[in-house]
Amino acid sequence: MASAPSVSYSITVRLVVPAGGSAVSQLTSAVEAAGGYVTALDVTASGVDKLRIDVTCAARDTDHAGDLVEALHQIEGVDVHKVSDRTFLMHLGGTIEVASKHPIRNRDELSMVYTPGVARVCLAIARNPEDARRLTIKRNAVAVVTDGSAVLGLGNLGPAAALPVMEGKAALFKRFAGIDAWPLCLDTQDVDEIVRTVQVIAPVFAGINLEDISAPRCFEVEARLRALLDIPVFHDDQHGTAIVVLAALTNALRAVDKELSDVRIVLSGAGAAGSAIVRLVLEAGARDVVVADIEGVIHGGRAGLTPSLRWIAEHTNAASVSGSLKDAVRGADVFIGVSAPNVLDATDIAAMADGAIVFALANPDPEVDPGEARKHAAVVATGRSDYPNQINNVLAFPGVFRGLLDASASTISDSLLVAAARAIASTVTDDELNANYVIPSVFHEEVHKAVATAVKDAAQEVSSSR
Question: Could you confirm whether domain 6-91 is CATH 3.40.50.720?
Fold first, then answer.
């Protein structure tokens, strides 16, 4: 399935063209004929005989971007001078920076920000360590920690190649929740070293966001850090995905007039995201869940189960269904995929129950073609931005951490994650709800505030009940 042009592969091509003639009018049509689309066309210099024009256009991928440049080059009289990849330009020098909150204009201000005045603040914190939340960045600081072993859908790229993702994550924390986040890419994939490293840097932070750490090690890293630290530890690939899936599922079920406790859910993928989704939908009230991985349906009698798969076998598939994913999905009300491309086809979706819900979330190519799925399913969601109902973790993690930090929380409970999901779902009103709008945009004015408030309330309730 060919993807549509995307601004992720946006290029700006600097051209020099004759001032007269038809070359200028041919630029847009040449790009469109080659399968791209023009998002901007700017005349950046003009002379008697020549124009300098910057054409910005979206392509499907890097190779397609080259095809668009060649299409422009083929127009008579056009000279291609420079091609800039806008995504790479945005990352030149990184996407984040540190800024001082106070001007340092003279000796007085220097002496309060730094020595000797800062010594009084140090002594105050030494007397009362809790004052670190009040008198330092700690109260609003989150570490975004990775070992680079599972970067996006690209695999084990290592810490340096993971850094752009972690920078982007930090930028989103700031944009949507006002949180100061620092990317920390560790040059180790040893669980003991990761845990110890995060433990010793933890005093600077009020929360730890684990990111792009491969399964099953991510489960152990998170569990051990939660036991060791007095600040919340949140693996976004697990819980952020699960929160947004539950939010979208809540509204999709509203749209088809079904209850979570009554539907049969089939899930493809038992890695970090899949395992967390299972746990959260069960916490929210699901009772009939079947999970499949590359080896087929997970059940108690299957040999060679890892501890995480054993937990799934013990808590799902009460009817002991076996066989393949295609077998399991027949008659199901809900399919959720966090696995691999094209594991189902339109005939599989047609075999599901009436009013079926399909969340095909593998990126960039989903488990089933969304267009084909929509012919048979009532609601379809993907992880992509070029289809309706995008399941995007950005809906969850900024608000979750904002609420945790505002509550000075030390732990994260499953009930807190459910509260976050319900807060996201609640931002879609009955008047707005339809098959193509079961989840709000990440730019929705209220969603991050709603999540933060719900998480803060849930965290404080857990704290007060102890």
Answer: no
What topology does CATH give the domain 236-466?
Rossmann fold (3.40.50)
Please check whether the two domains, 122-231 and 236-466, share a CATH topology: yes
Q: At residue 376, what is the residue type?
A: H
| Tally of residues, the chain | 466
Task: State the pairing for strand pair 357-360/207-210.
Answer: unpaired
Residues 6 or more apart whose CB falls under 8 angstroms from that of 368 comprise: 337, 342, 343, 344, 345, 346, 348, 349, 358, 360
pLDDT, the chain, mean: 92
Domain 122-231 has CATH 3.40.50.10380: yes
Name residue, tokens 């857990």: 462
Tokens of 342: 């094209």
C-alpha 100/C-alpha 229 separation (Å) is: 28
261 to 265, 282, 285, 287, 439: CA distances (angstroms): 10, 9, 6, 6, 20
Q: Which residues are catalytic?
A: 114, 169
Domain ranges in the chain are: 6-91, 122-231, 236-466
Residue-wise pLDDT tens digits, 210-228: 999 998 899 999 999 999 9
